[in-house]
Amino acid sequence: MVKEFIAQSPEILPDTFESTWSSPSNIALVKYWGKKEGQIPANPSISFTLDHCATTTRVKFTRKETPGISFDLLFEGEPKPSFKPKIQQFIDRILPYMEFLEGYHLEIDTSNSFPHSSGIASSASGMSALALCLMSLEAALSGAEEDANFYKKASFLARLGSGSACRSLEGPLVSWGQHEHISGSSDLYGTPYRGQLHKTFLDYRDTILLVDKGQKQVSSTVGHGLMHGHPYAEARFEQAHRNLAELLEVLQNGDSRAFIRIVESEALTLHAMMMSSNPYFILMKPNTLEIINKVWDFREKTGSALCFTLDAGANVHLLYPGSEADEVMKFIEDELVDYCEQGQYICDRIGEGAKRR
Q1: Which residues contact 228 (CB under 8 A, 6 or more apart)?
Q2: 62 vs 356: CA distance, rounded Å
Q3: Mvd1 C-terminal domain spans which residues (predicted)?
C-alpha cells in the first residue's frame, strides 16, 4: 500500500456522478520488458504520447445500498464480456485506494478512435481513460483540483491496470521507472518530461503500418514474465538505463542520427529478448522485416530522419519530423503499403495527453 494515494472515504456520497475522458495510446522509445510484483517495471522507459489513437470512456456512477464491486461494460455501444475480467482485476487492485467505489454501480461505456481489430494495443489508452474517470469522482468527493497530484495518482492507478497506461495521461514525452537522470522519476507512476525539447522533436509524426491485425500468439503479460530467469535480462536492463540517459541528451541537442540509432536498437532488442527467452517466440512477420529493410534503404538514399520502432507485435511505427511528412507519405504509398494487411495504416503525431470531454 502506498499511503499517499489512499483516499479518505466521504461521509455522504452523491446519488449520481458522470465523467468522460479521452486518453491516447503511446509508443515507447526506450522499451520496458519485464516487470516485478505489483506492476513494477524491471527497467525505466520513455514514450511519445500519441494524439489521434485514443480511447474515450464515459463512466456513470449510481449510488447503491449494498456495498461491493458492481459494473456494466459497453464497448462501442455493445456488451463486451471478454473485457470484464480485466476491468474486474483492475478495480480489485485499486479498491484499497478508492474504497468509496463500493458504494456505486458503474456503467462504463468506452470506444476507440481506431479500429479494435487494427492491432494497436488499446490497454494503455483504455486503462488511463478509466483511471481518469474514477479520479474525477474522487476529486468531486474531496473538492480537490485537477492538478499535478490528480494526474500523479491517476497515473499510479492506470499502472495497476496496464503498466504502459501510466505513460498516456500527459505529453509529449513521459518516462516510467526510476532513473538517476530524471528528477522525480518513480516505478509507481509516469513522470512527464520537463527538460528542454529540441525543435526537431516538436512536430514528430508516427505512421503505424498494420502488418498483422490478428491477435498476438503470446500476450505481453506472458512475455514480461519470461524475463524472469532470462539469460540476458540483467544486461538488457542495464542497456535500457544507458539508452535512456543518452536519449535524454538527444532530446535536448536534436541529434537525429543518435535518436535513430537508439530507437531502432531498442525496438530490435525488445524482439531479440523474445526470441531468446524460454520458451522463445517471434512476433515479427516477414513483411515486418521487408519494411525495416525498405526504411534503411530509403534513409541511405535520401538522408531522411525517418526511423522505425516496434511494440510487442508485427506492426511497424514510422517516426519522422513533420517537415518530412510529404516525402515520407509518398514513400509509404509507393513502397510500403503493399506490406500492410489490406493496405491499411494509421497516421498519428505526438500529442499532449488526455482530455476531459
Answers
A1: 34
A2: 20
A3: 208-336
E strand residue ranges, the chain: 16-30, 35-36, 40-41, 45-63, 71-75, 78-79, 104-112, 173-176, 190-192, 204-209, 307-310, 316-321, 345-349, 355-356
C-alpha cell at 326: 510529404
3-state secondary structure (DSSP) of residue 80: coil
User: Residue 354: inside a domain, yes or no?
Assistant: no
d(CA 37, CA 17): 34
What nine digits make up the cell of 138?
Answer: 474522487
| Same domain? 41 vs 176 | yes
Asked if residue 70 lies in contact with residue 306, where contact means CB atoms within 8 angstroms, the answer is no
pLDDT at 118: 61
The amino acid present at 170, given as its one-letter code, is E
Q: Are residues 152 and 250 in the same domain?
A: no
Instruction: Kindly give the parts of the chain with pLDDT less than 50.
Output: none
* pLDDT at residue 304, as a whole number: 98
Rounded to two decimals, the pTM is 0.96
* Residue indicated by cell numbers 456522478: 17
pLDDT value of position 129: 98
Q: Return the pLDDT at 122.
A: 84
CA atoms within 13 A on the CB side of 39: 21
Cα–Cα distance for residue pair 100/212, rounded to 1 Å: 42
Let me know: does 123 contact 162? Beta carbons within 8 Å.
yes
Long-range contacts: 136-144, Cβ < 8 Å, 24+? 136/17, 136/19, 136/21, 136/356, 137/17, 137/19, 137/59, 137/61, 137/100, 137/104, 138/7, 138/98, 138/100, 140/14, 140/17, 141/7, 141/10, 141/13, 141/14, 141/100, 142/7, 142/8, 142/10
Judge if the upstream peptide bond of residue 279 is cis by omega within 30 degrees of 0. yes
Q: Is the peptide bond before 286 cis (omega within 30 degrees of 0)?
A: no
> 189 and 211 in one domain?
no
The parent domain of residue 139 ranges over 3-197
Q: What is the pLDDT of residue 10?
A: 87
Q: Amino acid identity, residue 106?
A: L
**To which H or E segment does residue 288 belong?**
helix 286-302
Q: Is 279 exposed, middle or buried (0-12, 13-18, 19+ CB in 10 A)?
A: exposed
